């Protein structure tokens, strides 16, 4: 039976990462390790205050299930034993990694997936003044996909500055619930003219019913409104895509189920992340295969990453080596 270890870690961010809800300079994560038969499986999660999570609360949540985990709880049983969220993500991904290590097979093979290929990730530009976001765009103009953090007033100026700085890049924007319906009506046609191809979570979760009646010059993707498979039905008709993050689904097991269910609903797929190390991104690379948009750039935003980490070649991220995960 596996032996459980839990620890917290902090990874410094290069500079400051700012969205509409605030700023941070480090990524605080929880790592779960499962040891059995000389093998070690690891999973990393990023507790998110927006969902009332903290390192302490996530650690307590995992500890409360420690006896069952060490008694051999399965991944399917974990789905029933723990709610979707960061804590379950760390445990689920550690279970996948341990299973892969003990079987001598890659996690993608055990999941019944095709061998993963490299994917192109968005690169995120932190919320700032138009001038500073334009300068950041110039520095990253070689990247094929830029994701802009926005907040409401002044956003058209921000996007215009980024477009001038990176004229060839595809642009997606993320308001992180910071807009109103009036913002969307006013901004969307102008953003379309600036070449923006997707708007992520413009309205607050729970207050997004108005999206169903809005003309859609730019496709809209659900993030904070979208958690696990049970949330999909409420999104149909309001959103064109869903952003699947393992810290929201509660792990790769539910993430794979949610991806299939979202596609069955006719929703496009984006695979995203919180700000964590390569260990948190690695399972997401499996999930990201075939997704319309991939946003697994968090290690590029850190001052240093876990070693060994994922291999990035510009904005191309390669599948994880078994020494990292899976």
- Helical residue percent? 25-40%
Radius of gyration: 19 Å
Average pLDDT score: 96
Amount of beta strand: 15-25%
Number of helical elements: 12
What topology, given as strand order, has the largest sheet?
5-6-7-8-9-10-11-12
Query: Given the helix and strand composition, which structural class is it?
Result: alpha/beta
Largest sheet: 8 strands, parallel
Counting DSSP E segments of at least 2 residues, the number of strands comes to: 14
Distance between the termini: 19 Å
Shape designation: globular
Residue runs with pLDDT of under 50 for 5 or more positions? none
Please trace the helix and strand order, writing H or E for each element.
EEEHHHHHEEHEHEHEEEHHEHEHEE
Explain what this protein looks like in three dimensions.
The chain is an alpha/beta fold and 326 residues long. The protein is 33% helix and 23% strand. The protein contains twelve helices and 14 strands. The chain has helices at residues 55-63, 66-70, 75-81, 86-103, 107-110, 130-139, 155-165, 181-193, 246-249, 252-264, 278-287, 298-301; strands at residues 3-19, 22-36, 39-45, 119-120, 123-125, 145-149, 170-174, 196-200, 220-222, 241-244, 268-271, 293-294, 312-313, 316-317. The radius of gyration is 19 Å and the shape is globular. The protein starts with a strand and ends in a 9-residue tail after the last strand. The relative contact order is 0.15. The model has no long low-confidence stretch (mean pLDDT 96).
